[in-house]
Amino acid sequence: MSRIITKAVVCTLLMGAATISVSAQQDSSAKANRLTIGGYGEAVYKYNFYSDNVFRYSHADRYADSRGHGRVDLPHAVLMLGYDYGHGWSMGTEIEFEHGGVEAAVEKETEETGEFEQEVERGGEVALEQFWVQKSFSPALNIRAGHIVVPVGMTNNSHLPTQFFTVYRPEGENTILPCTWHETGVSLWGRAGAWRYEVQLLPALNSNLFNEAGWIHNGSASPYEFRPANSLAGAFRVDWIGVRGLRMSISGYAGNTFNNDITTTVYQETSKYYGATGTVLVGAFDFAFKNKYFMVRGNVDYGYLDDADLVSTRNKNQTTMTGNPYPHTPVGRNAYDISHEVGLNLMAWSSTDQKLYLFGRYDQYDSYVPAEGFADIEWTARQVLTIGVNYFPLPKIAVKAEWGLRRFSSQYNPEPWVAVGMTWAGFFN
User: Fold this and answer.
1) Which of 75, 168, 158, 76 minimizes the C-alpha distance to 401?
2) Looking at per-residue confidence, does 295 or 327 come out higher?
3) The dihedral of CA 95, 99, 104, 110: what is its sign?
4) Beta-carbon neighbour count of residue 169 at 10 Å?
5) Which of 42, 125, 201, 387 is deepest in the core (most CB within 10 A)?
6) Are 342 and 360 in contact (CB under 8 A)?
7) Average pLDDT for residues 359-368, to the nearest whole number?
8) CB of 388 within 8 A of CB of 400?
9) Is the Cβ–Cβ distance between 293 and 344 less than 8 Å?
10) Could you tell me the pTM of the whole model?
């Protein structure tokens, strides 16, 4: 009798263990299905047939026949992680290594009496580009909070290397706007029918970081361990996809940028800076049309900086003490970019799923349209022509090659180049 009872207990325990094991496997599988892992990356070789000397614009005649220079680069290597907690809650993060990341170390030199030395073996940056938690109430209503991408302009909304033809990100937008633009804030977004919308509340840009070569490009950066947020700003984007293959979008940004720094100055009514806001307004339109045979994309961006004369004067007069992270240049009252690209799929008439695009792209932009009383800087106005090929052996892998020419006013030397790149983007599960 005791043996029968013992066998029954053992069988019950084994069945229970098997049930627990199956349950654990199912739970593990469910968790795995909720986890999303992906990323994107680029490896580039570029040869510029012009001088990279910092005086090539101020003394153009000295560098007309200069030798070119080549470089290899890892513009972006990104790891993306996402997790669905259930009940409408999810999270996402994106860690970006730019230009190979940063390799720095402290070493003890035996050849130099054992002293310690700090060495930088490779330059670059490591950035947390996204880190957010989201609650989804319905497809039309989602709230996202944390570190998020600001989708103003075409490139910020479509910054994966398989989403543009050029080897590097499109030059115009990448010059005058932060790119990829990411801030810590709150986003409300959703989809309804052929429409998608997004509105965001963010810290405003810092006008101390604006300059003539990049307009507000560096304004979202911070040299400190935190991001000054004395002023807040708003951004929005609306997409329409009512026709198959076509997307049309408008986006914009508005925020006061003056005095949005680690320290603020209280200006008296007698000060010329009293009441200055440095309001930045950006408006953008972009579109994309794609079918089996060709792809067309384009954008128009226009920016305005209020009090550009006061921002320029203050920036130029900032302290030059060692370690000051700010430029000392004037800032344009306006900046603009008009860009278009067309690609023809040469393999569309074959039975293969591979794609080979022959493309052409044209950018016209200016990062510095001066405020009244400030001299023009003519080399900031540029026209860029790029032609090349993109080969997609698979939808998420692209091999790129291009020839480009950057042109200025006649007193400056043209800047041609060639470049090749290997890129990928996608999810692993």
Assistant:
1) 168
2) 295
3) positive
4) 20
5) 42
6) yes
7) 98
8) yes
9) yes
10) 0.87
